[in-house]
Structure formats: C-alpha cells, structure tokens
Recover the amino acids of this structure.
C-alpha cells in the first residue's frame, strides 16, 4: 500500500517534493494546495495533481478564476496519511494547530519553522532513526542541511573539535521578484552567531559558530568552512571520505567549475528543472593547515532538502531503514556521484 501524501503549499519546495514523491513506489501525492489561482495552480493541474484551496475562504477565488479545485485543505487531510507542509515560513506552525493536531495526522515541516514545531529536526544522514514512527518532523533548512551533511561525514571519519563557518547567502529564489532589483551586501544578522549554527545543533552535537551575509544573487548559497579536526588527516583522506556519500558532489575548479554560474549550467544539462540535491564541494578548496580543514561548498537552496523530505516520510511510517530509504531516494532522483 502506498502512503498517501498531501503537499500543503505548492511553491518552490512543495512542487519539488510533489515531483519527488511521484518518483517513489511506496508513496503517492493525493493533492496539492495553493492560495492563488495563478499559472502555478494551472501547472499543478497540468502535471496531474489534484488541486485544493490552501485555506477554506479561497475556494471562491479559484471558482471566479475558472480553476476547479477538489476542496479545501481540510478535505485533503481527510484522505491523506501525512501532510508535507511547504507553506511559507511560520505558517506551518499555524497549520499544525489549526488542522493537523485536530485531524490527528502526521506532518513534516520545513526549515522556516522553529524547531519546537516538531518532535525532531531531521537530516537523513545524521539522525534518520530519531524520526522513526514520529508524528511531527521538521526537515531543517537548506543551509543547515548542507552543513549537517558535511559535518556528519567529517565527524564520523575524523572527529570535529569546532567549526567556524561563513555563509554567503543568495538573497531570494530565482522566481522571486519581491526583493529584486537591488545591488547590495547585507550582514544578516549583523550579530554573531547567525541562526544557522544553533540550527545545526538541533541535529548534530558539534561546536559550531556561523556568520552570514546576503548577496544579490538568486542562484546558490556558498559556505566557507574552517573545521578543527580531532584526528590527523590529509586533503586526500577528506576527499576519499566525501566521495563515499552520494549526496555530496565533488567538482573541480580546474575542470571549469570556476563559479556557481558553471555549477548551475551543469545542473541545467543534467537535471529536470536544474535541481541539484547535493552539496557541491570544490576539491581544490580542501586544505589542511595545523589540523584545521578549510573547505568551500555551494548549496542549491531549492532542491537540497527534497531527498530529506522523502526519507522523513519513510522514517515516520517505519517502512525502510536509513540505508534502504536513502538508497531508494537516491536511485529514483538520480542522486549519485555525478561528478567526482
Ligand atoms: P514559496 O515558494 O513562497 O511557496 C509557499 C507556498 O505556500 C505557495 O505555494 C503558496 O501558495 C502556499 N501558501 C501561501 N499561504 C499559505 C497558507 N496560509 N497555507 C498553506 N499554503 C500557503 O515558499 P518556499 O520557498 O517553498 O518555502 C516553504 C518552506 O520551505 C519555508 O518554511 C522555507 O523556509 C522552507 N525552505 C525554503 C527553501 C528555499 O530556498 N526556497 C529551502 C529550504 C527550506 P500561493 O503561491 O498560491 O500563495
């Protein structure tokens, strides 16, 4: 029997989660929600998803626009086994109180929600087992997912004393125009640490301090990390450990990956919607100085959390082990050692 998944909020994350679920044999999308009857609502229907109004009062708006919806989120929940909440930041917590708790349905939240919205903050590699048979799980944000994946591998192989990371963040996603037309660099926040370090600690027990800046690009985030190791290691050892993990993509500057523009160009060649699900790490950036690892990685913000949502569903229904779930997700989404 396939798990019936409702995707509440068919935006940047929601449409990618829906498409990823579509690729799985043990789950299926039974409906997606929108508040606006715009081109994305029409696209959802064209792609074969049943469309529902994200809030009951929006039914009329869809009717007036000539878009037929099957009902409201409340109707959708009646049919579903789990909701993947992909609504805007902070709306997920409201939805939990308004709908999910009342209906007694399992829900996955995204990284825009505070950690206390769920029983577990989740990353498949680091703590899959903690999500087993839980009712509420939060898949951590794109930046946190990128940091946790990397630090988990480094910690498992070499031990980590402390981490200092600088995050250079894309200001908005490619589709957003609300904050566009700017030319600026903003320390965000100006105080230290940024929320990313404490967010990593909701999943991994590491000493980490983060500083973050926003820059006027929509393409990717970039992280510059210094990681003090417990054990001695050479750059080749680090590369070997990273190569073992399919959700890490190692690229080479020498090979033409001179900037995130080139990484995105490569993504356009190999993936539907240019979705990269992997941390992208430049091999040449890996250096060890006084037992401190230096490394630069690019984080594809729109897609990196998608495999984690799929794995969280399997963990919450306890239908696969960590290894089996990650293998299935990787296989179906084409995640592997594309370039290493
Ligand atoms: P988004 O592109 O703005 O999409 C949000 C979706 O939610 C839209 O489809 C919107 O529908 C719908 N929506 C609006 N109001 C709603 C409501 N009251 N109830 C239910 N749905 C509602 O946002 P996003 O970037 O996908 O972000 C979703 C979550 O993922 C956030 O927690 C965010 O922090 C997290 N996240 C985002 C990224 C990223 O890079 N984008 C990465 C990792 C995690 P309409 O368009 O019809 O209004």
């Amino acid at each position: 029997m396939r798990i019936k998944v409702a995707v509440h909020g068919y935006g940047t994350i929601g449409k990618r989660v829906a498409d990823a679920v579509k690729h799985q044999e043990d789950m299926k999308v039974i409906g997606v929600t929108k508040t606006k009857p715009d081109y994305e609502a029409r696209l959802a229907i064209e792609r074969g998803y049943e469309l529902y109004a994200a809030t009951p009062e929006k039914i009329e708006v869809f009717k007036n626009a000539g878009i037929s919806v099957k009902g409201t989120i409340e109707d959708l929940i009646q049919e579903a086994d789990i909701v993947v909440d992909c609504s805007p930041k902070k709306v997920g917590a409201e939805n939990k109180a308004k709908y999910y708790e009342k209906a007694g349905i399992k829900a996955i939240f995204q990284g825009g929600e505070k950690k206390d919205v769920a029983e577990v903050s989740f990353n498949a590699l680091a703590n899959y087992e903690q999500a087993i048979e839980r009712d509420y799980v939060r898949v951590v944000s794109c930046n946190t997912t990128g940091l946790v994946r990397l630090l988990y591998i480094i910690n498992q192989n070499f031990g980590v004393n402390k981490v200092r990371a600088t995050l250079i963040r894309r200001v908005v996603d490619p589709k957003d125009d609300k904050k566009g037309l700017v030319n600026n660099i903003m320390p965000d926040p100006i105080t230290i640490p940024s929320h990313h370090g404490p967010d990593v600690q909701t999943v991994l027990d590491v000493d980490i301090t983060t500083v973050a800046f926003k820059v006027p690009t929509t393409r990717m985030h970039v992280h510059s990390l210094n990681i003090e190791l417990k054990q001695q290691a050479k750059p080749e050892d680090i590369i070997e450990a990273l190569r073992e993990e399919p959700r890490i993509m190692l690229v080479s500057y020498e090979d033409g990956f001179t900037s995130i523009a080139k990484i995105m160009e490569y993504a356009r060649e190999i993936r539907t919607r240019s979705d990269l699900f992997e941390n992208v790490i430049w091999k040449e950036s890996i250096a060890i100085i006084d037992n401190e690892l230096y490394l630069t990685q690019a984080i594809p913000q729109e897609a990196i959390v998608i495999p984690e949502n799929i794995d969280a569903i399997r963990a919450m229904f306890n239908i696969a082990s960590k290894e089996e779930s990650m293998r299935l997700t990787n296989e179906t989404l084409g995640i592997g050692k594309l370039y290493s």
Summary: DSSP finds twelve helices and 15 strands in the chain. The chain has a mean pLDDT of 95. Residues 8-14, 33-36, 54-55, 86-89, 91, 110-113, 141-142, 173, 301-302, 305 surround NAP (CB under 6 Å). The longest strand covers residues 160-170.
